Fold each of these.
Amino acid sequence: MDDKIILLQKILDNSRYTVALCGSGMMEEGGFIGVKKQEKAYAIEEKYGYCSDELYTSGFYNTRPELFFTFYRNEMLDFPPELTASGPALAALEQNGHLHCTITSNIYDIPRRGGCKNVINLHGTIYDNHCPRCKKTYPLEYIKNSKRKVPLCEHCNIPVRPLVSLFGEMVDSQRMTKTTLEIGKADTLLLLGTALDSEVFSHYIKYFNGRWLVIIHHKPHYMDYSASMVILDHPKNVLPKLT
Ligand SMILES: [Zn+2]
């Protein structure tokens, strides 16, 4: 692997503009398993009587807010992914000019909490919540610690909305456009904890027109051959070795 690190360092040194895409592997390396993953999906259906595709939707938020927030607190907020060495390593790369934009589909704001400045949280974050009517914002703690099962706006008495993309919802169009532009600008695209066929990113990756596509992911994938370089490991074991 050390040869690959040296080569990757050379790629970054020569890259004019580098963009990183952070997928679900960035949460898995912090011990978090997504609710859509097979190993969790069955337990969720047993526990709630519905699958996550039904629970984590605006339909449930609107019509069954108690169940929605029980699910959201238990499965999304109570055991978030632990921060790994990846976030600070990305921030260090950004600081020394080797990384220009980090785009993540995870809702835990991992790159920014690691210190990155130019971040696109494609699906929003658990830290942003507002009242859909008066737009008053509420911190994560308000959702977590609400004495009622459903956190209500203090003024309007209606459920506060976590500003995350729920399943089946359109992604914020400004973020989509910005993501497309950033990828189109990139000379090097890093796929961190995600594969080329990623449900979230595959559509955006089509806009990549640069020189080097690098995958750092612990799971091999049959499309890996089309990348310039593949490192089969967790990003947290690789990124801190770069300078
Ligand atoms: Zn309100």
Amino acid sequence: MCPEPPLRPRAGAATATTWHAVALCGARVLPLLAALAAASAPAAPVALDFDLHLDPAARRLSARGTLVVRAAAGASLVLGRQFRLKGILDGRPLAAPQVGQDGQVWTLPACAPCRLSVEWSGDLAPPPDSASQRETLGELPAMADPQGGFLPAGSLWYPSVFAGKEVLLASHRISVRVPPGQRALVAGDTRSEREDAHGYTATYEQDAGGELFDLVAGPYKVRQRDIDAAGGRKLRIATWFHADIDELSDGYLDAVQTYLARYEALIGPYPGDAFRIVSSPLPTGFGMPGYTYLGVRVLRLPFIKSTSLGHEVLHNWWGNGVYPDYARGNWSEGLTTFMADYAYKEDAGEEAARAMRLAWLRDLAAVPAGDAFPLTQFTARSHGASQIIGYHKAALVFFMLRDILGRDVFERGLRRFWQQKQHQVAGWDDLRAAWQQESRRDLQPWFKQWLTRADLPRLRLAGARPLREGARHALEIDLEQQAPAYVLDVPLAVTTAAGSLRTTLRIDAPRARLRLDLPAAAQEVTLDPDFRLARALVRGEAPPILRQVLIDAATQVVTLGDAPTQAAATRLARALLDPAPHAQAGAAASGRPRLVIGSTTVVESWLATQKLPPRPTQVAGGDMAAWALQTGDGGGLAVVAARDAAALDAALRALPHYGAQSWVVMEGGRVKTRGNWEGRPQSLRVPAE
Ligand SMILES: [Zn+2]
């Protein structure tokens, strides 16, 4: 259940291999007070000054310090339930707290300022033996052992001040002490560091208001460099790694240096004095202000440096530098995905960039209609559909905006937004205002249609006829979409006798008959050939992918084979499906999406009995194969066929990451081949003139 009061989600990773911590209860995030957004200007409403002692072996935190609350009307002090707190307010002890499901709450009197002295301590949980990726998406308790301490913001491990349902932004000075051999880190600039026989003590300060922050600790080997940053400043970059991945440090430092230079040039100076990559015993992928907390196993993956790492670095600007206004829609994941994950594809070339746009559109086509929601309602990734919308649809919105404004105006708008909103809560409206100022255009209608509608344009190329007027050639094109209509500049490719050309035509009604003058007779016309519009792909454009079945709540599971195979099939179904499966052996109603898992021979005879297509010829070899197909009755089908129970169990960890594929072949749990069925943009042959 949700702690009372609930918490903000936090910026984090966005790839198939790393996972968000959402300091978020279920998928519930309650409204940000409008007044709070205004109050989040540079002078923070709360100042924290704490001395912490963390003993990872004893799994114990003890701490003392003060809180100054500048505006306390209606504010309350909140702390996690496992901690004992003694507090003195204006010379008097605090009364007993109200204890809710997950937190202790003290209502503060209307004093301005209030000065509170506090002492608190509590026992921490042991880290889970093997936290699965999905478990790290949920709420994590404050935990520690000598291999790593992680006190997530959402565990309310220190007393913080809330106004209504939202935490008040706070500046801080935090001194933290850990035993010899350990290091500990919170957000903020490093003011001092000391290591002696008694242990390691560091002091971190953050002058501007920040959100709830985490504490991480571990037996880290530190490697660092001081680099030149924007404006002649020095910036420290460091790895805090467990000893067994120490050899990875140089590669990560090189990569971080490149990312920092890229984003400082593009957006503006990095907001801090250091950036660290900190390893975690858990399979985490979190972006915190000034550092990223990545699982040891994640850091070992060779592609993290060129994918997730840049995403996490960029969150220091979007998410941890400007804070999203969650009540009106979290824009930070979409913008970070666009300027990191997608931008790296553009670096690789237009073909890679187009493939990513198509993959996003395929994912969007796989979201069941009832699960779609407008971008103004996105808070944080909590299930498959929320990631597809909050990350990928939002990234497409930024992509389309850059197409409209041009790269120069788009990037000037970003710099303006960063200058104006750093260390403040900002929403989509603030982004729009920055781009309006740079472009001198009214972007309100454009943003409104992309942010407030749950559906996507369903564009259809309905007809194309040649027009001949004397020596002149033209083409008449019929476009259709749903009502109410989107206003769209639709990209078209036209092949003529004299070569092909690209253009855009505007549609602002459910049906439009549009005219295009051409240098020669038209032969073929193709709608949005490069997938530059966020839109609902039609059937032939969106070949089936595994995810289509995996994220549908109506999906039925069919397990086939002997008892051990069926048991392994059920385990795999649990890992694959989001939400939880309705398992069933042997048969399933048609017309509903189905996930069929079993031994190869039994699956093949089942497909034949059901008059479904056999295993496609591309999907060959391996000890396990999975493929998606569209059945005639409209229900999607995902098939997993394996040699035996062991092959299914081996696929348990990796297969859930391949939902964007049409098919995957694995051997011993490792991917051998994978791919997508061909998709084709809508196109029409034009009759001869
Ligand atoms: Zn992210």
Amino acid sequence: MVEGLSRRQMLALGLGGAVYGAAVPGETHQSTGCKVGEMTTRSARVWMRRTAASHRLANGIVRKAHNKDARLLPPDTRIETLEGSAMGAPGYVRVVYKGGPSGATKWLEVNEAADFAAQINLSGLRPDTAYRYVVETRATRNGRVDGELTGGFQTLPVAGRPAAVSIAMLSCQMYCHMDRPDGFHLYESIQRDAPHFLLSCGDNVYYDNEDPIANSEAVARYHWQRMYSLPTLVNSLRHTGGYWQKDDHDVFSNDAWPTMADKRMAPFTFVQGQRIFREQVPAPLTGQPLYRTVRAGADIELWLPEARDYRTPNDDPDGPGKTIWGAEQKAWLMKSLRASNATWKILVNPNPIVGPDRTTKNDNHANPGFAYESREIREFLKSNFDGNVISFCGDRHWQYHSVDPETGLHEFGCGPASDEHAGGTPGLDKLRHRFHRVLGGYASLEVSREGGSCSLRVRHRDVKGVTVYSHTFTRKG
Ligand SMILES: [Fe+2]
């Protein structure tokens, strides 16, 4: 027996002859699943939530409408009557894990203040290692343990060693645009690909332009419940660690900045949206910025900028003082990009820099409203890096590969999570576009070495995982 593990935990982890993933007796109380994020070479952060029931509410009141048809809930609506609700319940949570070293965390109490969710840091892990885990919950401190949820994740390879790494990147999942009753094809496709990790780069939920419009913390949390209790998401995220970024719709409202007001959403605020995002996904600790880097072996490092928390109002006049990233983040970005010796440096901004975008938009670096900062960053990349910084983005509801005619910066938009959510493109731009497809899907990145050269293969995939476009960058060394 592994020290500290019960017979039942041993079985759940596949130790002692049991098959990994086999059903564990007892009803689970984790209808919103679990998520592992913020993996480093030595640590990972596990998000857990105890729920009242083992499944989301299947037969409740359905609220699905988009844009101008989206409405507020009637004031007396109880969230637990809504389809897809997965109400939290008080209790205790912990993680038991195996992969060398093995261990079990302390029990942590969960309560209403943080929506019955908790995050536990696993430390002292081994680099580039597949871990398996069991999330346990129970109602009382010394009570019976509920049915368990099993899963797995991988720690990152160390910076000094070349390693083959694969990544899946997705964005823009709207509930009323799901492409199957249990969620999204794309999550099943990603689960089948089994990447080292996934990047969900914003618009994880839509507070403002799909029904019900979030005007309270309870409604905002309902958006997370109904999305992350979908079986395709629960199953995929149990087996793949990830990093989550937020964008406008999953912090507040369309094209949001911190001082923006949205009368329909009152009294819900941007600050509440910021807090709920950190509550609902594995994220850096409160007080630490959400912008961070992910280094996965010798050949790839990713920068995950934060695109909403530091921006000046979109409608300010453009110029040197106007910013999306803010001075501090921009200094961090430039300094850390210069300091990195990774073969490929990947800038995963939630929003586009190259675009092109449609002319009616004014909230990103591909729009005229932020042209000054856009040129500053593109010129910086051109003069400091020999083409080995590549831009990726979510947010736009079409898939594309474009190249900036001014600086040669390559950009890949991963596309929306379903075909139903695609649209809004300005159309094919022959000057910039190498690829342009107005349907859903995701992007996959694969880094590998062969015969003294290192390649980065970028593929656009449709929602079923079929490759619809591929581009490979190669460098010697
Ligand atoms: Fe979006």
